[in-house]
TrEMBL record:
Domain (Multidrug resistance protein MdtA-like barrel-sandwich hybrid): residue spans on this chain: 60-201
InterPro entries, alphabetized: MdtA-like_b-barrel, MdtA-like_BSH, MdtA-like_C, MdtA-like_HH, RND_pump_MFP
Domain Multidrug resistance protein MdtA-like alpha-helical hairpin: 100-169
Keyword Zinc attributed: no
Protein name: Efflux RND transporter periplasmic adaptor subunit
Domain Multidrug resistance protein MdtA-like C-terminal permuted SH3: 300-361
Main subcellular localisation: other
Cell compartments where the protein resides: Cell envelope
Leader sequence segment: 1-19
Biased composition, class Low complexity, residue ranges: 366-385
Similarity annotation: Belongs to the membrane fusion protein (MFP) (TC 8.A.1) family.
Gene3D superfamilies, per the entry: 2.40.30.170, 2.40.420.20, 2.40.50.100, Helix hairpin bin
Annotated ranges, domain Multidrug resistance protein MdtA-like beta-barrel: 207-295
Organism: Novosphingobium pituita
């Protein structure tokens, strides 16, 4: 009896249980994710290359003795600015003054004898006309007069040479610039042809910066210029900026002076020389720096923010693009030079493409997404160049 009643109650409850189950809420469909996109546009972009370089003085001269002698005085402060022609050292000049006096005495004696020999040659010439002397006597007198004149010229040259040697006892600055340390002190023996100079002068009010670039990149740039995709007004207008060893940017801008006409066979690179003003002496010869060279302007370039570029398993650069149908697609890219926080795109993207730069982790190719403005501001190109990836 109890079993029959329980079975009847259970059967009567089934419709209510089924109705309750059918009224439970279903899980909502996932919302379409929002992603930050940037619409690409064509624009002109400067092609910048960051290359290692070394500072070279505009002019460098070694101060060397032209005569032998003991250094008597040093007339400059080490590290000071000196002018061309300024006396730097004095060498003991007593031997050279004595040599000059001796040369002057010899010249005086030669000059005294020339008058008598000339007068005798003239008298013999008149006597020869009346057969008063033989031809041989006249020839000997004329030869003696000519020899006396030649001797005077030789003694005059000796005086000039002695004067030059005496002048070399005052060692002068050959160029204007900043002089370094003195390698010899007062009392030391200075000799012509010695291995070390007395000091070195460097003109650093302006300096050169020599950088090297691979020959293939220069060829690619020239090809782009010939094709019309890159323009350059001329070598004299190419701007160069320096990054100092402490990471700071040198405040004064330089200009490209010239590109070497030969390729280094050991490295396959070409030397590029730029010229910089250096009024405060910040740039010192031998200093290693980085030079940012604006080699040209690429017209109608496509620039993509670097945060929108990633790499696949093969190492290829890729970007996610939101199509007009709201679907995400992947594009493979060939990248050129980095300009600030953007890459120049050689192929893979075009003007009007909407590149996803935020929310990349929320979507994958084929997913639907909604476009939104990026929350982070996009920096302007040309700020903080990075190493190149790929080729132009």
């Amino acid at each position: 009896m109890r079993w029959t009643i329980g079975r009847t109650l259970a059967a009567s409850m089934l419709p209510f249980v089924a109705a309750a189950c059918s009224q439970q809420p279903q899980a909502p469909a996932p919302a379409t994710p929002e992603v930050g996109v940037v619409t690409l546009q064509e624009q002109d972009a400067g092609i910048e290359t960051l290359l290692p370089g070394r500072v070279v003085a505009l002019e460098t001269s070694e101060v060397r003795p032209q005569v032998n002698g003991i250094i008597r005085r040093r007339l400059f402060e080490e590290g000071a600015l000196v002018s061309a022609g300024q006396v730097l050292y004095e060498i003991e000049d007593a031997p050279y003054r004595a040599a000059l006096a001796s040369a002057q005495g010899n010249l005086a004696m030669a000059s005294a004898s020339i008058r008598s020999t000339r007068l005798q040659a003239d008298r013999y010439g008149r006597l020869l006309a009346v057969k008063g002397v033989s031809q041989q006597d006249y020839d000997n007198a004329d030869a003696a007069a000519r020899q006396a004149a030649a001797t005077v010229q030789a003694r005059r040259a000796d005086v000039m040479s002695a004067n030059v040697s005496l002048g070399f006892t005052r060692i002068r600055a050959p160029i204007s610039g900043r002089i370094g340390r003195s390698l010899l002190t007062v009392g030391a023996l200075a000799q012509t042809g010695q291995a070390d100079p007395l000091a070195t002068i460097s003109k650093i009010s302006e300096v050169y910066v020599d950088v090297t670039e691979s020959a293939d990149k220069l060829l690619n740039l020239k090809d782009a210029i010939r094709a019309g995709g890159v323009s350059r007004d001329g070598a004299s207008t190419v701007a160069v900026q320096l990054v100092l060893p402490n990471g700071k940017t040198y405040p004064l801008q330089g200009k490209l002076a010239f590109t070497d006409t030969t390729v280094d066979p050991s490295s396959g690179s070409v030397t590029i020389r730029a010229r910089f003003p250096n009024p405060d002496g910040t740039l010192l010869p031998g200093m290693y720096v980085s030079a940012k060279i604006v080699q040209g302007v690429r017209h109608n370039a496509i620039l993509v923010p670097q945060q929108g570029v990633s790499h696949d398993a093969h190492g290829d650069a890729v970007a996610l693009v939101l199509g007009s149908d709201g679907k995400v697609a992947e594009r493979k890219l060939v990248l050129g030079t980095a300009l600030g926080d953007k890459w120049i795109v050689n192929s893979g993207l075009k003007a009007g493409d909407r590149v996803i730069v935020e929310g990349l982790q929320q979507v994958k190719p084929g997913d639907a997404a909604k476009a939104a403005a990026p929350q982070q501001s996009m920096a302007a190109p040309g700020q903080g160049a990075r190493p190149e990836l790929g080729k132009e």
